[in-house]
User: Fold these one by one.
Assistant:
Number 1:
Amino acid sequence: MSMSLPPASGGVDAGLVVDPEVHGVSLWRGAVRRLRRNPTAIVGALIVLAFVVLAVIAPLLTSYEPGSAEWAGDVTPTSVPGPSEDHWLGLDRFGSDMWTQMVYGARQSLVYGVVSTAIGLAAGATLGALAGGFGAVGGRFGGWVDTTVMRCVDVMLSIPSLLLAVSIAAVLGQNSYAVMIAIGTAQVPIFARLLRGSMLSQGKADYVLAADALGLRKGRIVMSHVLPNSVGPTIVQATLNLATAIIEVAALSYLGLGTSDPAVAEWGRMLVAAQDRFDAAPRLAVLPGVAIAITALGFTLFGEAMREALDPRTRR
Amino acid sequence: MLRFVSRRLALMVPVLVGLSLLLFAWVRALPGDPARALLGERATPDGIARVNAAYGFDQPLFVQYFTYVKALLHGDFGSSIQTGRPVMDSFLERFPATIELGFAALLLAVVVGVPLGYLAARHQGRALDTAVVSGSLLGVVTPVFFLAILLKLVFADQLHWLPTAQRQNPRIEATHITNFYVLDGLMTREWDAAWDALVHLALPAIALGTIPLAIIVRITRASVAEVMHEDYVRTAESKGLTATVISRRHILRNALLPVVTTIGLQAGLLFSGAVLTETVFSFNGIGQYLFEAIGQRDYPVLQGFIICIAIVYSLINLLVDVAYGVIDPRVRAS
Amino acid sequence: MTSTTTSAPLLAVRDLAVTFGTKGSRPVHAVDQVSFEIRPGQHVGLVGESGSGKSVTSLAIMGLLPRRGVRTSGEVLWGGQNLLEADRKTMSRLRGRDIAMVFQDPMTSLNPVVPVGIQVSEVITRHKGVDRREAADRAEALLRKVGIPDPGRRLGEYPHQLSGGMRQRVLIAMALACGPKLLIADEPTTALDVTIQAQVLEVLKDLVKDTDAALLMITHDLGVVAGLCDEVNVMYSGRIVESTTKDRLFGEPRHPYTGGLLESIPRLDSPRGTPLRPIPGSPTQTLPWSEGCAFSPRCRNKIDSCTTSTPVLEQHEDRQLRCFNPLTEARQEARS
């Protein structure tokens, strides 16, 4: 007797029609689609885009040089010229054009943020993957590698991350590289733990057991199956860490670390300088502070939206 | 339980050993001759010889490390280059101030944050929830020193509602026993001193506590929202229990578990934040001292303070783990 | 209902309908036109596959459906009051004391951080107003009654220290703690191992008989129904399609769906090599009731009117039936 019946003509659960939303769409394409529909993701993405664009085309947006202090003569102890036709955001207390300072500051933050996160990611992910990979493989050597690496990570975690960055920057000297290396190093434990966790939990996953049973070499399983699955959470973490990095860069400048070259505009340093002219010109503090907050907000919103989009549990 | 605690303590040991190695290497990583680096611009041949003798820089590295560790175990964390005072003394003198500040900030974060997060989760999608989510998001991304500056400049300098700086009005008579100014005031019944200290604590605590507050709100909200839909909450409702019992025993007791874990991490943020906040408010704690030491490149102070902070931080996390073990019976089993 | 007793029903469900829908998506009629009665001490079964609406019915009776995105209509009469319109306070007093529920998954239905003893005694303290000591004693007695060994020690233990079967017994103990007049059991044994299932069902049976409670048994397992229920309602796609006594249902099923369910059970006495006879198609192949009979895409008795008009639940001979072309005597003989 034939078991097949004509498909239902309608109804709530006419599931014989294959729903492209559920079947055959890769994790990434599905994630992008979900992101496009998410308002917070869009807001975050727009902020990030605006920030990056401003930072990249900074020289095109202003004809002045950062930290030039050309109009120092116009500044008095009790007044700092405000917005005008020549100076859209007015002057800062040293007599430089505020708008120039702001856009070049964005450039600094972008560079510092991206480089330090890249350093943290590269070093941290390598360490974590090593630990996790060897740990998942097992055996005495594998376990030993895992434990040793993770103990080192624990040591780094025993110091609050900003203080860790501060100690490193203090040692490396008064320049930009010190800041980037310092903040990058402080991010290593986060990525290390992330990769290790990802490798270990996937090592137990059924598909890995299946691949192993099929005879694939452990190394190959790791490279072509486990690692690609760790990419998503890593990107999410990198985005969120960028937000933190931008804030930490400003914090380090506030503490007097990092480059002291006045020609380099940096939002954190601008905040330091703005403090004692607050009643004369509050915008000197408000502008850079708000800029830091909004930029960090953009990356945070986007990163969290990405996390939700990639989470298989929320796939509908 | 005892086994749990001792195991965690045992784990701390290799970490501290590693830390001591790291910090030992750190001083040696300074460019050039360690003695010269330590003294910086004030290097004189005499001074260098003294430092070499004091720190044993002329000895083989091995010996240096052991001398260093031996000193640490005796509580000798070196002396400040600037003042010559033992680092430990400076630390102990200023530590209570930071603890008071950190405690106030954490208290604020928990007392305001948990109820807010809970209410937001219970009224998801409505006005309160949206306000709470937006507010906490802003709280997380605002740099603590920016907030501190704003608060100080607006509420202290402009509006004069709250004091501008320091821990206490120097004109008030106050006896200091423990160096916890509020506590001292209460203990000696000098009510005006206690109140004055409290008032000086307000703005810095608000600045420092805002980020932890925002984080706690978000975690509580997410946790409560998830727990609310768990099967065992449905069971509790099916038993006809009162709303109070359901919220307390069934929802909160489970939802607060992740919050407890996060408090350990907040301690780290509080230490970092303290360095920045104390500076803005000239609040005489280890944070401000650290800031000055950074500026002066007073490496023994930096080194000593960081070890002390690391030890305290590890102990706090240990306490949190133990507390978690007390609250969640499933953890005790493993 | 063809019951001849004259006692007033304990629970009367009339025309219950539950619709799930959020803005933008099509509404789902999870439960529709459901009516049945439960008399004191009676054991009623609600049978159907997943998606038939049986669990939603039980949650609607208890008032445990989410407040947003759900619309309920009809009546659930208890002591003359419509529970669907009762306020939270009334329901809170009713639940656990007069109507109690045992849920499906024992692994997730217990609070992991509260000792088992408290989870049982808190119902007692809530509804009976006794002190904690007394409630703990009663809890211990209850645990013994459901067959948990060494109940005194178990009071202080946590759910993760108990096996699945024991946890389900705890849930049963919790439900019966205050001697409810009606116990609703939603697939209480589905999540358990087969050997444990029989034990737990025995416990349930004994306790329900012992306390004279009425029972609403929700299940997809006809074996469970056979052992426990007097009256049975078969549900399909949100509506009741057949309703009668257990003996009549098993002896002479009239609705093709019921017939299919019974046919699909492998029999010990069939000769080896007999092919299994499942119901053709899948539960996703349904017609909305508004367009005809929901079961028609899978029905072997289908006639034209099945896809053009909607059958109504009405008295057919000795039972309530929703079908245009029910199974007849002759059809059943051809089967065996």
Number 2:
Amino acid sequence: MPSATVGQLDTRVLGRIDNNSTLYGQSERYVYYNEAQRFLNIITGFLQTTVPVPGGAVANRRWYDTPAPIIIPLKVQFSGTYLHKSSLTRIGQTNPTWTQDTSANLGYPPASWVPVGLTKFGLHPANSIGGGEILVTGIQDPVLFTTSNPNQVLPFPNEYLEAMEDLSAFSIQLKEGFPLFQAANMLYQKFMARMGTESRWRNLSMPVFPIERQSTR
Amino acid sequence: MPTTVNDIYQQVAKIFMEDVGFSAGTGMITDSMFFTSLGDVMSDFLSRTGCIKKLVNIPISFGQSTYVEPEVVCEVQAASQNQTFIYRDSGFFLDSANPQWTSEFDQPAKWREDENLPRRIQLTPTPNVDGWQVRVSLPQQGYGTISSTSAAVDFDIVADVGVQGYGTISAAPNGAAYLEVLNQGYGTIADMVSSTGNLQMISAVTPFSQTQTYLLNYLELIPDSFTLAISYGVAAKLFSADSESKDIQRSKYCQSRYQFMLSLVGSVMNEVSFEEGEEP
């Protein structure tokens, strides 16, 4: 159960940057906390939810927007039934008239969904009778931290507090000159090494850290 | 709260220790350099990840096989003509399978983009009918209500900050439609092109405006969770620019964060866009 707060994260990050809240103002720090939670969330896919498409199915309509707050749609249900995921090419090959097919002329309700990028999807066939519930399951955008609410709880399990601290404390030091920034890069390497084992995306390869050592001579 | 251009501006300016803004600060980097870099990075991100797609309709004409794609289209992923899927093909295979393919007239069954000028799509067989368009009467000037007809669909209407547009566009006739307006919502609605009878493309898109110049604008098309890629992409460009702020090491670092986001979103798209077992 998550219980660590953004205030605790802030205290830990300040400890890493010499408690210098003048150089690193509060609003600036929170930008990096939000960046860290979004970054960690996309890699791990932790925050998933199921939300209805507002208004439900519209008669004969096949294109729908991915409902907020979902940013990466993963599954779609129509009237309580999970739909088969297809692709734009595959469904065109198997059902060439899919952009005009409806449940009335095919005789069955929506059976497939087709992602159109991340922000739209299509149903096949389109439902001829409006009103059916469309539920989309996917990864959602996290609720952003605000400086006015340091008690806001981090949405991840407590063991990820350290990962967020590492990433935030490193990223914020980009404004420092290169030697100081380079000295902090172990934090980023540590974060990315951890993400290498936590990624939910099969094809994702973690990068080799790019900062080159500068000669001291 | 959607991300604005100003959010990116503030973050990048603080990385360069220009807390009061670029032009108001030391001036080593100008606002203009920032806006140019932002436009470049947004276009690059959207075209390389293909994470935002739109339905774009083009009216077809009797006897015309090649059509110009709108500026926002960067890669066509699928196409249909008169609401029927048409297959992607290439010049080489068309030439080999049917040497006379360019002289055939019928309902288009295939399309290709290769061996053409950029942003051109060619249909084969060449259409033997004109597609269908809704002409909006000139006196209406985009102020009124387009009353019509079937299910609501998305329209793209780009306006400057503060321009709310006049009137309500309630719906489009006969399926998904692509609406193009002149002069930022004030001018004539030139055409409404229905998918019925015409070419419909589902394509990855880039922003309408290559140069983002209004700080209060929302960051066009980029999902909020991915905006960190834009910050690092812009910082990478500015760190590598010829100025007092030039810092190749930090530029490389920012570029690597940007590249990783491209790779991450690419992996997301590979899993989201394709059926289980289907080759990307």
